[in-house]
Write a structure and sequence with these properties.
Structural class of chain A: alpha/beta
Strand order of the largest sheet of chain A: 6-5-4-7-8-10-9
CATH class of the largest domain in chain A: Alpha Beta
Number of domains of chain A: 2
Distance between the termini of chain A: 50 Å
CATH topology of the largest domain in chain A: Rossmann fold
Number of helices of chain A: 15
Radius of gyration of chain A: 23 Å
CATH superfamily of the largest domain in chain A: Vaccinia Virus protein VP39
Oligomer: homodimer
Strand content of chain A: 15-25%
CATH architecture of the largest domain in chain A: 3-Layer(aba) Sandwich
Largest sheet of chain A: 7 strands, mixed
Chain lengths: 356, 356
């Protein structure tokens, strides 16, 4: 399976690709089982010589039957290759074993997305995260995150943090290039960005905006890290059109926040941000734009993950294309002062000011 | 996604293929939703001119958001292509819409295999069809088939019949080339093969061997079709090592039966067949051998479907490779008299006799 487009395939190839799609869930489970049951690991240790099916059975503790049925398909998937009677780890198998992004994405699918994704049709029809019902009775994922059970919670948080940490790392020096004294983090979540800002600059005051439960967790953590006296909390439901945002900051940040909102919710939120901003306030918007990725695989992944927003997070949001988001910023009374691409892990940074 | 092997991919391509695997279940649901919600159909009707996202929303009844999130990923999957502001049906999308094999396979995955497949690791570890628990408390699928609920039952039977009907069509004239007067169908199932044999030759007597419940359904159906007086029933649990098979037939048939048994069960069953066979009796074994397919996609599909046998049917069987099955036939005291490949839908026919 590859991420490249197949728009003008000959019929035979299109038919082959169609079977690959029809059995795509089989491919996922075969691949992750090859990893989780230690087969890829055993093959890596065996090196270029590889292992026979019998040796692989001994190494993995699986039966000869289990090894044969799994590895025959793994050869088709390109995880391993067969040379005479031996199986040898292929490049794709090595990536599944060793690449952190791949591991995070696969664990996310295994523990969280797989079961809910079956409700994609219902989610699209209703614009509700219909797949969430598999986990709890929540309107959106964000209401249920604190109650999410294991292993779903662990894999979701690792997935979420994998992408955001890389954005934060790139974002913090860019925010402090303008020496702000007061930074408002809108959608502060676990306080990871706040902790980085507070650690980066010993004078800065931070105000965290999020739901009360979420803020309480972030406050405890920032207290523990000794940042408590420079942290303000501003409890708000960002979906509430009447909620106000804190006024008068030098910098406001929305890092990977807008992907959690619908188009109309984004406009409403940005309008409230504009009201809270002084003419000199900068709003730092960080997003992952599928239409601004260098690699096909990155665009493919973002467009796939958008369907997780549909089915398991909000029902009405996504990784917006840049061409979808820019008009919303304009409509809210803001203008893009500067733009930088490919910071973090394929993130874009839009620095915005009030239009007036 | 394609079915070709990727054994020596450069790292970048391997990393891309890995993300495709990580999000493979997303790909499945996006593709089948494009089909089921009428988007592929609307695009086919629109022809080379295609449709805008707004037109597609109108045609499908989905919101502009739903259309945008779904079609952006569908472009990555190669189902549709984008030309300026219009979306146009691609070759792969056309196959998903119009190819019967693809439709049968996708429906099978959607309605039956998807949820159970998540228990592949447990099934492999225990050699039990652990995914069946999603549907009922059965030891094997065959015990539960009569109770399987909709839409799982409908999609499973269509899938099963799609493959077997094409084999039967090719098999019947080959059996009757030797003018048998008594044919024993081992694993007679719904009686489809029996009906074809009885219809093909007005003199032939058939004996059907299967579980009592299954035989009763087949008997009713053959009675209704007016074949009742030429049909004998032989109730047997083929897994029972003490069960005897009917003696003295000219021809015995095992069509796509051995894939439902483990290696040791196959040897035991074939030994009992050898006991029941006269020196002149021919045993017709029809199987789908993954290692004897012409097209990569066919081998890929068979190896995928083998994981359904593991997870949702028996826990210990598969589409055996030819090189796995031949020694079992030998070990049971049988010899292959003749062999024919690519009958039906990629099936192989082995005509066997007693070794003595």
């Amino acid at each position: 399976m590859t991420c490249t487009k197949k728009t003008r395939l000959p019929t035979g190839q299109a038919r082959a690709a169609a079977q690959s799609l029809a059995f795509a869930p089989f491919a996922f489970w075969a691949a992750i089982t090859m990893r989780d049951q230690g087969l890829l690991d055993a093959l890596e240790r065996a090196g270029a010589q590889g292992l026979s099916e019998a040796e692989l059975a001994e190494e993995s503790g699986l039966s000869p039957y289990a090894v044969s049925v799994l590895t025959d398909f793994a050869v088709d998937l390109g995880l391993v290759e067969r040379s005479d009677e031996h199986l040898i780890l292929a490049a794709l198998g090595s990536v599944l074993l060793n690449d952190e992004l791949t591991r995070v994405n696969m664990d996310f699918t295994r523990d969280f997305a797989y079961h809910g994704m079956a409700r994609l049709p219902q989610a699209l029809a209703a614009e509700k995260p219909a797949g969430l019902a598999h986990f709890g009775p929540w309107q959106t994922l964000y209401q249920g995150l604190a109650e999410l059970e294991q292993p779903a919670a662990k894999s979701w948080f690792r997935f979420d943090q994998f992408f955001s940490e890389r954005a934060f790392e790139a974002l913090v020096p860019r925010i402090f290039a303008h020496a702000p004294t007061h930074v408002v983090d809108i959608g502060a979540n676990t306080g990871n960005l706040a902790a980085r800002c507070l650690g980066h600059c010993p004078q800065v005051q931070m105000t965290l905006v999020d739901l009360p439960d979420v803020l309480e967790l972030a406050r405890q953590r920032l207290d523990d890290e000794g940042f408590g006296d420079r942290v303000g909390l501003h409890s708000a439901d960002l979906l509430d059109p009447d909620c106000e945002l804190p006024h008068g900051a030098d910098a406001m940040v929305m890092s990977q926040l807008l992907a959690c909102f619908s188009v109309s919710q984004i406009v409403a939120l940005l309008k409230r941000a504009a009201v809270a901003m002084a003419p000199s306030t900068r709003l730092y918007i960080v997003e992952l734009f599928p239409d601004r990725q260098i690699h096909d695989a990155a665009r493919y992944s973002l467009n796939a993950i958008s369907l997780y927003f549909t089915t398991l997070a909000t029902g009405n949001s996504r990784f917006y294309r840049r061409d979808q988001l820019l008009p919303l910023i304009e409509r809210a009374g803001l203008k893009v002062e500067s733009e930088e691409e490919q910071i973090g892990q394929g993130h874009s940074l839009l620095v915005c000011r009030r239009q007036d």
